[in-house]
Amino acid sequence: xxxxxxxxxxxxxxxxxxxxxxxxxxxxxxxxxxxxxxxxxxxxxxxxxxxxxxxxxxxxxxxxxxxxxxxxxxxxxxxxxxxxxxxxxxxxxxxxxxxxxxxxxxxxxxxxxxxxxxxxxxxxxxxxxxxxxxxxxxxxxxxxxxxxxxxxxxxxxxxxxxxxxxxxxxxxxxxxxxxxxxxxxxxxxxxxxxxxxxxxxxxxxxxxxxxxxxx
Length: 215
Fold this sequence. Notes:
Blueprint: H1 5-17, H2 25-32, H3 34-53, H4 60-74, E1 75-77, E2 85-87, E3 91-96, E4 104-109, E5 117-120, E6 123-126, E7 132-136, H5 139-146, E8 154-158, H6 161-168, H7 175-180, E9 184-188, H8 191-210
Parallel strand pairs: 3-8
Antiparallel strand pairs: 1-2, 3-4, 4-7, 5-6, 8-9
Helix pairs in contact: 1-8, 2-6
């Protein structure tokens, strides 16, 4: 029954390690506390996409690459909607189950489709500020969203802040083990974890290409 979970491990690991650039991050997270960690996670998610797409606003070559990145990850061909396409609008709630942690982040992709593109001197391009929207929540707000399927597709609930800190420091993640140890609980459409992990992997690849020297 757990045959599919090794794949979940890979994608969850990609999501959790995307912003890990310093060995002291687990210690910093531990000292800050839930509400500050939530604000930091929200800011890093948003700024991550701004970083990836920022040059699209200034350079036609980067605009084309950013457009391909957006098309590959967020555009869904759908003949049943006006225009023949729609945008991936996955909604996630990242939180801990320990009420005292107060660490809750709501993540929404392509929340405002009409604002996804903006005008530049080189023509229309992706608005990096509109790809993802994050909101930090109180415990009561998080519980209300968690119970509303219209507001969230997948809830990733960790046991406590220590569980998140421990995962940040790991090189690999075994979701089966985490589930058996009651360290993480996935509620909702778990297929969205594949999509979220795939986007995280593409962001890593995009940044790697952007950092390569040009000749």
